[in-house]
Every structure is written in C-alpha cells, then in structure tokens.
Design goal:
Radius of gyration: 17 Å
Organism: Ornithinimicrobium humiphilum
Shape: globular
Helix content: over 70%
Strand content: under 5%
Number of strands: 0
Largest sheet: none
Membrane topology: Multi-pass membrane protein
Distance between the termini: 31 Å
Number of domains: 1
Low-confidence stretches: none
Keywords: Cell membrane, Membrane, Transmembrane, Transmembrane helix, Transport
Number of helices: 10
InterPro entries: TM_pro_TauE-like, TSUP
Oligomer: single chain
Protein name: Probable membrane transporter protein
C-alpha cells in the first residue's frame, strides 16, 4: 500500500513514527501519535489493519528503547521479567477478545482514569523523584504479586485497546510499587514490548499487518525510541515526570474530544 502514497504522506508517516518512538521511550503513549497518523494517511484501511500495523511500528521502537534502558539503567529483572510475562498473557487474551468490544464504550472510562492519574501525579510532586519500594525486601512475595497484577491488567488493556499503555505501566509501577520514574520507565518498556509481541501473535496470522507501511513507521520509531531513551536516562526522573504530565494532558484532550464527539454526534 505504500506504493500508492505520495511523498508528503510518506514523510508524514515517517515523522509520526519518529515522534511516537521518542514519546513512547520517555513515558509511553506513542500510540496516540502513531495510530491517528495511520488513520489519516490510510483512510481506506480497515480498523484491524491499522491496529496491527501500529503494533509493528510500536514493537520496533519498544525493542530499541528496551535495550537502551536495560544497558543504561540495569532494571531489576526479578520484577521486570514476571511483569513482562504477565503483560504478555494479558495482552494475548485482550487481543483475542478485541473484536467483541466497542472502542467507543471505553472512552469515558479511560478519560476518567487519565484525569485521576494526572491529578494524583500533580498532587504529589515528589512522587517518582526518589525510589522507595513498597512490598520490598521484607515482603518480596507481595511485591511480585503486585507486579504480576499490574502486568496482567495493563497488558489486557493493551490487547483490547492500547493507547496510553506505557504511561499506565509507568504510573502503576511508581504509585503502587514505589519505583522512581526512570526505573519505572525501564521496566515499562520491557513489559510494553511483551504486550506488543502478544498482540502480533494474534494479528499476524490473520494477515492484518500492512508490512511496508509498518516497517517504514517502525524504522523511524526505532530512531525516536533510541533518542528518547537516551534523553530520559541523561535527564533523569524529573524530566520523565514532566514529560509524563504533558503526555497525560494530551491524552485527556484527545480522548475528551473523542468522547464529546461520540456523545453529541
């Protein structure tokens, strides 16, 4: 399908992939840039094609940022691996059920969750600045159980719908388990890679992926993901927190508008 796009649309898709990769590497939520770009650039594609192609671009970016975070932050794999495995299982189940669930029905709920997350983050300015683990060394089983629950819940959401998955992972790891934003972002990238992989396990056999478009966007997502991860590591948790609030605000505006159109249309 790329052959039928003019140069301006190819540039548009490439820039969207670059921006999405950067945002996703820092705090998650690149899908709210990438998926709308696919909708605009490929109006004739079916919803499942757009979702599947978006996952190709996303997994290429999350692979790069996951490796970069792992090399530079060295996240504790005793939490990251179980989190990712639970996220994989949740996303696999969610993607399998996605065709049964209306996206429109989720918009008001997602909007309420995002407003709550943003308000909580702004009300606690020191949250995520320092790492203060809950359920830590004295209660490792509770820590692991909480990580598994986060992985399964957010992973299921990503399989069913997806936008904001990375940010939900970051928020849950910071607010529930007490990680700093930088450490939380590193673990979130590993888990987000797992959710993207699980969704593709469902979508690829259906022939839903537009490979040429996905690989173009994915290549640019890789560059954005690499740059975003390096910037986040260099600037630290304070920068990531600011980015987190900005991205959440964008989520609220985007989903709030969609909800308004849905209710008044």
């Amino acid at each position: 399908m790329v052959e039928h796009l003019d140069a301006s649309l190819l540039v548009f898709i490439a820039l969207a992939g670059l921006a999405a990769g950067f945002v996703d590497a820092v705090v998650g939520g690149g899908g709210l840039i990438q998926l709308p770009a696919l909708l605009v650039g490929l109006p004739g594609a079916s919803p499942v094609q757009l979702l599947a192609t978006n996952k190709i671009g996303s997994i290429m970016g999350t692979t790069t940022s996951s490796i970069t975070y792992f090399r530079r932050v060295r996240p504790d794999l005793r939490t990251a691996v179980p989190l990712a495995l639970a996220a994989f299982g949740g996303s696999l189940a969610g993607a399998s059920l996605a065709f049964l669930i209306s996206k429109a029905a989720f918009n008001p709920l997602i909007l309420a969750v995002l407003v709550g997350v943003g308000a909580y983050t702004l009300a606690k300015p020191t949250m995520g600045q320092m790492q203060k683990l809950r359920f830590g060394h004295r209660r490792p089983r509770r820590h692991l159980a909480a990580a598994l629950a986060i992985g399964a819940a957010v992973g299921s959401y990503d399989g069913v719908l997806g936008p904001g998955t990375g940010s939900f992972f970051v928020f849950a790891l910071v607010s529930v388990l007490g990680y700093g934003f930088l450490e939380a972002s590193a673990k979130a990238k590993i888990a987000n890679f797992a959710t993207n992989l699980a969704a593709l396990v469902v979508f690829v056999p259906q022939g839903a992926v537009m490979w040429k478009v996905g690989l173009l966007m994915g290549g640019c997502n890789v560059i954005g993901g690499y740059l975003g991860a390096r910037v986040a590591v260099a600037r630290g948790s304070g920068f990531v927190r600011v980015f987190f609030v900005v991205v959440l605000s964008a989520f609220v505006l985007k989903i709030g508008w969609d909800t308004w159109v849905q209710l008044t249309g």
